[in-house]
């Protein structure tokens, strides 16, 4: 049987999700057709309806800018999606669409794979959209000491914190002018536009780890800026992408793929571009 899934995003041309899932499927000798879909923002619901109506479809992944629409679309939410307030994975179950969020799992796994110390860390999370929503509960569960949220629109940052203000012992606040961070995470898509967040350079110290959820075939604009400002450890989001994809694959097939060989292949392919 040929199973099907896709990734919804706009833009989505740069997505490596089809390659990743095809590599995962090979590990288990599964026939899996994974495609890309890029509807206009107002057409997301109709596009999702049409795709998910196919009986061979197991689900879909959702990326920028559809994660919050996806949250409203589904019939049921997983605990991860409920806490995040955003959905990045659809899973079909008995004619119902379950919304899940694997972003946080992928992020934490990649940070740990890169030997980033999370317990007790002071974190600056840039952005308050779907990606940040997925990351925040996972950071709290990883026992970071504090998370400061920076967003261009302060009200959105406050809204993000509102639902999680009593979730665990982590101190949560909107960023003001703090400078002592252990980890800075860019959860915006600014790097896809070759832009950087409007933050002061003094936050990027030598001991700070800077992580960009965006990945490209070269260091992103955020990571280049952070390095120029003094940051020594700069990590892009390729490992997070593969990690969250592995969790989505597990939700669809009940099988957890090996991430490492896929990440190595993908990195080589990107560097060759």
Account of the protein in words:
The chain is an alpha/beta fold. The chain has two domains: 3-101 and 242-258, Rossmann fold, CATH 3.40.50.10860; 104-238, Rossmann fold (3-Layer(aba) Sandwich). The chain has helices spanning 17-27, 44-52, 67-73, 79-84, 103-113, 130-141, 154-162, 221-228, 238-253, 259-271; strands at residues 3-8, 32-37, 57-62, 76-77, 89-93, 96-100, 122-126, 146-150, 171-174, 183-186, 209-212, 233-235. The mean pLDDT is 94.
Give a summary of the structure in a few sentences.
The active site is at 67 (proton acceptor). The protein is an alpha/beta fold and 273 residues long.
Question: Can you lay out the helices and strands and say which pair or pack?
Answer:
Blueprint: E1 3-8, H1 17-27, E2 32-37, H2 44-52, E3 57-62, H3 67-73, E4 76-77, H4 79-84, E5 89-93, E6 96-100, H5 103-113, E7 122-126, H6 130-141, E8 146-150, H7 154-162, E9 171-174, E10 183-186, E11 209-212, H8 221-228, E12 233-235, H9 238-253, H10 259-271
Helix pairs in contact: 1-9, 1-10, 5-6, 5-9, 9-10
Pathway: Metabolic intermediate biosynthesis; chorismate biosynthesis; chorismate from D-erythrose 4-phosphate and phosphoenolpyruvate: step 4/7
Domain Quinate/shikimate 5-dehydrogenase/glutamyl-tRNA reductase: 114-189
GO molecular function: shikimate 3-dehydrogenase (NADP+) activity
């Amino acid at each position: 049987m040929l199973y099907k899934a896709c990734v919804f995003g706009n833009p989505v041309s740069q997505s490596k999700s089809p390659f990743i899932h095809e590599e995962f499927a090979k590990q288990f000798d599964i026939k899996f057709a994974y495609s890309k879909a890029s509807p206009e923002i107002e057409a997301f619901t109709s596009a999702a309806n049409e795709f998910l109506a196919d009986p061979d479809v197991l689900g879909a992944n959702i990326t920028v800018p559809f994660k919050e629409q996806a949250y409203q679309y589904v019939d049921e939410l997983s605990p991860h999606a409920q806490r995040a307030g955003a959905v990045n994975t659809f899973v079909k179950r008995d004619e119902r669409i379950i919304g899940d969020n694997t972003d946080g799992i992928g992020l934490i796994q990649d940070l740990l794979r890169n030997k980033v110390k999370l317990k007790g860390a002071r974190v600056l999370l840039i952005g308050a959209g779907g990606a940040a929503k997925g990351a925040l509960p996972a950071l709290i569960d990883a026992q970071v000491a504090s998370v400061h949220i920076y967003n261009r629109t302060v009200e959105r940052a406050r809204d993000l914190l509102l639902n999680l203000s009593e979730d665990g012992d982590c101190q949560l606040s909107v960023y003001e002018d703090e400078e002592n961070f252990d980890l800075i995470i860019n959860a915006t898509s600014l790097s896809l536009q070759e832009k950087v967040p409007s933050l002061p350079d003094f936050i990027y110290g030598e001991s700070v780890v800077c992580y960009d959820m965006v990945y490209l075939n070269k260091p992103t604009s955020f990571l280049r800026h952070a390095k120029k400002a003094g940051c020594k450890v700069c990590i892009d989001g390729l490992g997070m992408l593969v990690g969250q994809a592995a969790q989505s694959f597990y939700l669809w097939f009940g099988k957890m793929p090996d991430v490492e060989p896929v990440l190595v292949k993908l990195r080589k392919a990107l560097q060759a571009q």
